[in-house]
Amino acid sequence: MPSTIPQLHTEFLERVRSEVARDTRFNALLAGGSYIHGGFDQQSDLDFVVVVEDDKYQEVMSSRHDFAKRIGDLLSAFTGEHVGEPRLLICLYGPSLIHVDLKFVTPGDLGRLVERPAVIFARDPEHTKALLDAAIIAWPSLAPEWFEQRAWIWLHYGATKLARGELFEAIGILAFFREQVLGPMLHRRAGRPQRAVRRMELMDDQASKQLTRTVAAHDVVSVRAALLAAIELYVDLRSDELPREVVRQMPEALFSYLNENISSAK
């Protein structure tokens, strides 16, 4: 549990705990994210896992918006298919704004986790503890092959947008590339879970400086320089753990494309 929790978060957490305890369809409330990793502050989300009795799961899933409305002034909510997690309900509450994630699972889902959550409430504390003790806990790290198979296609795509003068598109692709490739690989280099670019500024000054070179202004010269920096950084990070097979003719072919299609003075 964090040493200090803002009052808004404390009050909300207690409302969720009370509602879960009152509803006999639920057998536990767990918390993850910043609540267990540290760095919890006024801007933090609340990440909850609501453990549902097996025979009540479909009922809860079909009415989970009702549960979300009971725990606060719900402004908006949508499900998490876009992150591959349909069990997740992503919520915004107000008028003091707070982001709350509610993931509904069954006890059997606790067998494999990306982190060990804190137990906020449990009807049977010993049983819940036993499930968590037995869980396989591992962050889903991507293999070197995953990065290599995608990196050059994404980088070339960004270069084609730059060549067309579609600078907003190219800038967006650079941001996507930091999230999907460079950030995870920089965390890998430091021995941390591959968490995109989360908290990079706070935990790794050198990595932040490297990523900064890949951030472009709305200018051809700036975007070209950021693409070149992204290529250079990817090749450097790739050397930490080489894929079994590297993409042929890269990065040379991409350098040639940039030189032929985008002049540094364009």
Can you walk through the features of this model?
This is Nucleotidyltransferase domain-containing protein. InterPro entries: NT_sf (IPR043519). The chain contains eleven helices and eight strands. With 266 residues, the chain is an alpha/beta fold. The strands form two sheets. A six-stranded mixed β-sheet has the order 3-4-5-2-1-7, sandwiched between helices. A two-stranded parallel sheet has the order 6-8. Strand 4 and strand 5 form a beta hairpin. It starts with 6 loop residues before the first helix and ends in a 5-residue tail after the last helix. Helix 6 packs antiparallel against helix 10. The protein folds into two domains: 7-137, Beta Polymerase, domain 2 (2-Layer Sandwich), CATH 3.30.460; 144-261, Nucleotidyltransferases  domain 2 (Four Helix Bundle (Hemerythrin (Met), subunit A), Up-down Bundle).
Write the layout of secondary structure elements.
Elements: H1 7-22, E1 26-32, H2 34-37, E2 46-52, H3 57-62, H4 64-70, E3 74-80, E4 85-93, E5 98-105, E6 112-113, E7 118-122, H5 125-134, E8 136-137, H6 144-164, H7 167-189, H8 200-203, H9 205-212, H10 220-238, H11 252-261
Parallel strand pairs: 2-5, 6-8
Antiparallel strand pairs: 1-2, 1-7, 3-4, 4-5
Organism: Dyella acidisoli
InterPro entries: NT_sf (IPR043519)
Protein name: Nucleotidyltransferase domain-containing protein
